[in-house]
Amino acid sequence: MKMCILIKDLNFEAIIGILPEEREKVQKVKLSAEIKYHYRDSNTYIDYAEIADMIKLRVQTKCYGLLEEALHDVAASCFNHFQEITSLTLYIEKPDILKSCRVGMKAKFKRNDCIMIKQ
Predict the structure, then answer these.
(1) 66-105 pLDDT per residue, tens
(2) Known EC number(s) (predicted)?
(3) Boundaries of every domain in the chain
(4) CATH second-level architecture of 2-116?
């Protein structure tokens, strides 16, 4: 059976950016995820609290230069940690970076299309 976990508006602070001030000071980050996987029985479920914590910790410890790098790395990490995941859509936002609007990026990933990384 196909299932989908929705993680909406996971809020935390992290260093993401290429400008000097973005490399020195944490800023607000908001991340949402739509995670699709095959559920067969009680041994194949995905703990949504575990995946939310993993995503938050990953972004906070890696200090990415670009949002694109963050999205790709989070996707690869999710695929590596959770073999049941078949695809995911990630949306990351830096809500306070511009005064006149919120800025974000969205990307879709499939297991076979995402380059795996070593943890």
Answers:
(1) 999 999 999 999 999 999 999 999 999 999 988 898 889 9
(2) 4.1.2.25
(3) 2-116
(4) 2-Layer Sandwich (3.30)
Give pTM, 2 decimals: 0.89
Token couple for 72: 């790709």
The C-alpha atoms of residue 103 and residue 27 are separated, in whole angstroms, by 13
**Contact by Cβ (8 Å): 78, 35:** yes
Question: Measuring CA to CA, which residue among 75, 115, 110 is closest to residue 92?
Answer: 75
- Residue found under tokens 């990630």: 90
Nearest of 61, 45, 37 to residue 110 by alpha carbon: 37
3-state secondary structure of 24: helix
